[in-house]
């Protein structure tokens, strides 16, 4: 599906009188077929408790789905349908930037709007506008609000009559059950459309990243665009092979039959993304979900507001709206979203929220992937190139202003190495960001006030050896190195997720390994040493989601390696084919021949020792010998 610019010729006469002159409202501007547009209604009051919108159904025939024109801030609107104005109130949770077709995904409705005297089930107790703005922006039903035609629209109300996202999930499930997403050609077309999104919206992605976090364009392009393109192209290059049935070995009894693994999609899946890499960590899983043949509800992080808006308003121009929908939601609305039955949930975020997601998934026995992060240790041995270590550690720690789940969280080294490492780190920071990192275009900012205050409070740990400057107004925290940090200090009790690098002194490698093993298993372990045996020892004696020797972060750039946590750092894995496998149900299948029934008499009663002997010969797997690891 092409971008919004490639639409059919608009209908209506642009020179005719518009609604302000008493003419046909369709003549206000060029409106392509199938377009739903929002129009300001300045006559209604502007109240934050009643954010609502106006829809104008510009044509009875819903043709090519396109994205509605959306104002950044919603006000009161009127729904104009067949000449009738109906006030419509919707929660902030619902995005209108999904493509709008006959299925009305943008509204989470089960069917197009139509005037009807029938009231939606369960909504008899709703009032036109909810009194709790945090819980809802409005409800359906009630006197003076003729919105009976909205069967299960995205309404939030204190009576809890309907889940606001039930209609949306039902629509996507119907699309999946129709088999629309299964053909290879369909999957390839949607993936190629995603590629066009990355190419055509490249500048907007870079600008949104800069507005949300002050992210340098170099870092934004590398992580949000290039890595996504690599995932996309790797998937397109291999999808036809990944999708094929995988034939497996058979025993003597099934030699004439077909045994294979069918790669089935799960169904309707939910992807919840974080704010630190808001494009990459949404599109990465999305690529695999599309490739596996699923329908997807996409929920970007509300903290990265500009990127969230970009995804909500733009993805619908490229992806099929019958099968893919973007939902913008806060905490309360996301909780309601999670009440719905999904067939798979992919979540990236903090361990505390991960527990909430897993608990919600458990209500429906829904499988999950949780990418959670944690405190990633970095062991530096006494035998290494100090300058190279300092540059690689500083880059990994201060990339994206330290807001990377995979960043080295703290350094473990001897006192002697700390004395060598400190000036090398100072030199590396100056080399990367200049004498005043605040003025560097290559150093980002903290995402928000809450995160800034949390990170700044951690500066009380140990002794500030490098950096330490902060500016709350600018959300700036300088690249900082802390020395003399104790295991009991506050900074060692939680994931830092900011531009601070504490150094903890240990006496030996054995002490460092024990220190790490006493704590929750991290997303990654880093080890630096000129001695390959030291690196191998760290790898062998510790458990983590991933491992990288003599560098930081770079292992996640390989689509051939699985990326994921273990224990508190996460559950499941993805990247490359592992993403396809994550969103695929591997279905064991055996297709037997109806002939040769005489062979089956060996398993039928009456049983005998002779029959058992024949079956043992046909089924038994015998051990061949010892296995040696090379």
Distance between the termini: 50 Å
Helix fraction bin: 25-40%
Topology, number of strands: 22
The class by helix and strand makeup works out as alpha/beta
* pLDDT averaged over residues: 80
The biggest sheet, with number of strands, parallel, antiparallel or mixed sense and barrel status, is: 7 strands, mixed
Q: What oligomerization state is this entry in?
A: single chain
Strand order of the largest sheet: 14-17-18-13-12-19-20
The residue ranges in which pLDDT falls below 50 over 5 or more consecutive positions are: 1-161
Q: Indicate the proportion of strand residues.
A: 5-15%
Tell me, briefly, the overall form.
globular
Number of helices: 15
Q: How many whole angstroms does the radius of gyration measure?
A: 29 Å
Give a structural overview.
The chain has helices at residues 166-177, 184-200, 202-213, 217-243, 280-291, 305-314, 331-338, 351-362, 386-398, 415-433, 449-457, 509-517, 532-541, 577-582, 609-619; strands spanning 36-37, 56-57, 78-81, 84-87, 246-247, 258-265, 268-272, 295-299, 324-326, 344-348, 368-371, 376-380, 408-413, 463-466, 470-471, 476-477, 480-483, 500-505, 524-528, 546-549, 570-571, 584-591. It is of the alpha/beta class. The chain has a seven-stranded mixed beta sheet, sandwiched between helices. Helix 3 crosses helix 4, helix 3 (202-213) packs antiparallel against helix 6 (305-314) and helix 4 (217-243) runs parallel beside helix 5 (280-291). The longest helix has 27 residues, at 217-243. The protein is globular and about 85 Å long. Residues 1-161 have low confidence and may be disordered.
């Amino acid at each position: 599906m092409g971008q919004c610019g490639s639409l059919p010729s608009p209908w209506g006469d642009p020179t005719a009188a518009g609604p302000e002159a008493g003419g046909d409202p369709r003549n206000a501007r060029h409106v392509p077929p199938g377009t739903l547009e929002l129009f300001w209604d300045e006559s209604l009051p502007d109240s934050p408790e009643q954010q609502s919108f106006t829809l104008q159904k510009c044509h009875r025939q819903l043709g090519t789905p396109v994205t509605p024109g959306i104002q950044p801030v919603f006000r009161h609107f009127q729904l104009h349908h067949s000449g009738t104005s109906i006030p419509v109130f919707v929660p902030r949770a619902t995005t209108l930037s999904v493509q709008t077709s006959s299925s009305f995904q943008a509204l989470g409705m089960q069917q197009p709007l139509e005037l009807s005297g029938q009231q939606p089930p369960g909504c008899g107790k709703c009032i036109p506008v909810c009194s709790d703005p945090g819980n809802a922006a409005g409800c359906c039903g009630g006197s003076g609000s003729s919105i009976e035609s909205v069967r299960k629209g995205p309404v939030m109300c204190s009576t809890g009559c309907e889940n606001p996202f039930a209609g949306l999930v039902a629509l996507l499930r119907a699309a999946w059950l129709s088999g629309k997403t299964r053909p290879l050609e369909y999957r390839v077309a949607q993936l190629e459309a995603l590629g066009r999104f990355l190419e055509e919206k490249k500048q907007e992605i870079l600008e949104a990243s800069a507005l949300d976090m002050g992210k340098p364009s170099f870092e934004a392009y590398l992580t949000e665009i290039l890595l996504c393109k690599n995932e996309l192209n790797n998937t397109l290059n291999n999808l036809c092979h990944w999708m094929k049935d995988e034939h497996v070995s058979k025993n003597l009894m099934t030699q004439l039959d077909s045994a294979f693994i069918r790669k089935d999609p799960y169904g309707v899946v939910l992807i919840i993304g974080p704010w630190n890499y808001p494009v990459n960590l949404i599109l990465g899983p999305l690529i695999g979900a599309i490739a596996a043949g699923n329908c997807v509800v996409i929920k970007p992080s509300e903290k990265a507001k500009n990127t969230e808006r970009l995804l909500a308003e733009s993805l619908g121009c490229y992806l099929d709206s019958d099968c893919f929908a973007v939902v913008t939601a806060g905490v309360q609305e996301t909780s309601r979203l999670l009440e719905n039955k999904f067939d798979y949930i992919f979540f990236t975020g903090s361990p505390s929220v991960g527990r909430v997601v897993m608990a919600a998934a458990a209500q429906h026995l829904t499988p999950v992937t949780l990418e959670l992060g944690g405190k990633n240790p970095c062991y530096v041995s006494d035998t290494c190139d100090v300058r190279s270590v300092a540059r690689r550690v500083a880059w990994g720690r201060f990339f994206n202003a330290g807001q990377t789940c995979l960043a080295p969280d703290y350094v473990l080294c001897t006192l002697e190495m700390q004395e060598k490492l400190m000036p090398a780190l100072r030199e590396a920071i100056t080399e990367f960001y200049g004498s005043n990192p605040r003025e560097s275009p290559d150093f980002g900012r903290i995402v928000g006030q809450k995160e800034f205050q949390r990170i700044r409070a951690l500066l009380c740990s140990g002794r500030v050896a490098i950096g330490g400057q902060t500016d709350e107004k600018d959300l700036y925290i300088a690249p900082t190195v802390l020395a003399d940090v104790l295991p009991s200090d506050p900074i060692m009790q939680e994931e830092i997720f900011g531009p601070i690098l504490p150094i903890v002194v240990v006496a030996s490698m054995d002490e460092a390994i024990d220190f790490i093993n006493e704590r929750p298993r991290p997303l990654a372990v880093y080890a630096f040493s000129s001695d390959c045996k030291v690196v191998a020892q760290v790898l062998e004696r510790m458990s983590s989601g991933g491992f990288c020797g003599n560098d930081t972060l770079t292992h996640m750039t390989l689509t051939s390696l699985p990326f994921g946590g273990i224990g508190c750092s996460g559950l499941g894995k993805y990247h490359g084919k592992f993403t396809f496998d994550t969103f695929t149900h591997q279905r064991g299948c055996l297709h037997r021949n109806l002939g040769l029934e005489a062979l089956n008499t060996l398993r039928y009663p009456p049983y005998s020792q002779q029959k058992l002997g024949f079956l043992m010969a046909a089924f038994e797997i015998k051990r061949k010998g010892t296995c040696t690891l090379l």
